[in-house]
Specification:
One of its GO terms (biological process) is amino acid metabolic process. The chain has 9 helices and 18 strands. By secondary structure, it is an alpha/beta fold. It binds aspartic acid.
Length: 332
């Protein structure tokens, strides 16, 4: 018998139509989830007091999920987090880094259409999430969506129309669900040490800056120079290239000098930052930007948030950012 805890935080899956459009409908989802009861699976559902459209997610919501998982960690074999799709990849990234020493499955899922809709994708998604949450060898945070199980720290929302809403462009799925589940155990992460979940700071200012031609580089630089900023993800061009704009480079230096970090990732959906592939990658690196390899923007932001919350700064922060911690980046 597997015991699973389902945490319901909001999202389309439990929404109903209102005059303004879809909105969460308290009390609805737990009743619908009763249909998933079967021999061999025992689950409890906790509906959060504040059900949200996940576009409203904030660090305090992440802390609530972390606290709920931490409190009941010993009582269950696995966990399912029902979440809106808009920011599911951010939450998956945050949980992947914040749940240190995780040795049980934590599987996020949701739906593109509410469960009450006759064509909802939510039934498959929840069924697959529950199945993955019963896998004792799965020691990581994952997203179950449209018959795929994806590493949480690699996943991205890629589609707002089709049911294949998520992908992990730089990493193989952890499983594919067909008539049988096809577990890709060769890529699953090993458990590491003792479970030590970390709460997040709720006061951090981390910018995600998408470089663009024209004034984009200078604007990004000015934001980084602002002392209120704790860190930045810089989405540069191609394999990590940027113009040698003095305002941009001064911003990187200023933010790095005050103990923060600039994490350089690529705007391209696939592939990695590779310093030295082009001469145009050198100025950013020399100014102190940390090369983020093939980190997704969501995982980059999550990694910065969790490491800054743990009190890291300066060279220690840069060193942790540059190496894979939870399978989030390919080592080159
Ligand atoms: N706006 C919704 C949310 O993220 C979208 C969804 O769940 O599919 O909560």
């Amino acid at each position: 018998m597997s015991r699973v805890l389902v945490l319901y935080t909001g999202g389309t899956i439990g929404m109903t139509e209102t005059p303004d459009g879809l909105a969460p409908s308290p009390g609805l989802l737990p009743g619908l989830l009763e249909r998933f009861r079967r021999p061999g699976l025992d689950f409890d559902v906790v509906e959060f007091d504040e059900l949200i459209d996940s576009s409203a997610i904030e660090p305090r919501h992440w802390n609530r999920i972390i606290a709920a998982l931490a409190e009941r960690y010993g009582d269950y074999d696995g966990f399912v987090v029902i979440h809106g799709t808009d920011t599911m990849a951010y939450t998956a990234g945050v949980l992947a880094f914040a749940l240190r020493g995780l040795a049980k499955p934590v599987v996020l899922t949701g739906a593109q259409l509410p469960l009450l809709h006759p064509r909802s994708d939510g039934w498959n998604n929840v069924a697959d999430a529950l199945e993955a949450a019963c896998q004792p060898a799965l020691h990581e945070v994952a997203i179950a969506f449209d018959r795929l199980l994806l590493r949480g720290s690699r996943a991205r929302k890629l589609d707002v129309e089709h049911f294949a809403g998520f992908g992990s462009p730089n990493a193989e799925p952890l499983a594919r669900f067909a008539i049988h589940p096809h577990w890709n155990k060769a890529v699953w992460l090993p458990g590491q040490g003792e479970f030590q979940p970390k709460a997040l700071r709720e006061d951090l200012s981390i910018a995600c800056l998408f470089l663009s031609p024209g004034q984009g580089a200078a604007l990004a630089g000015r934001l980084m120079a602002d002392p209120a900023l704790d860190a930045a993800v810089l989405m540069s061009y191609g394999s990590g290239n940027a113009p040698a704009d003095p305002a941009l480079l001064n911003g990187v230096k200023a933010l790095t000098a005050r103990g923060g970090a600039v994490l350089n990732i690529t705007q391209a959906p696939r592939g990695a930052v590779e310093v030295g592939a082009y001469a145009a990658s050198q100025p950013l690196a020399r100014a102190g930007a940390v090369a983020g390899a093939d980190l997704t923007p969501e995982a980059a932001l999550a990694k910065l948030h969790v490491l800054l919350s743990a009190g890291l700064s300066g060279p220690q922060l840069a060193a942790q950012l540059a190496r894979p911690l939870r399978g989030e980046m390919s080592a080159h």
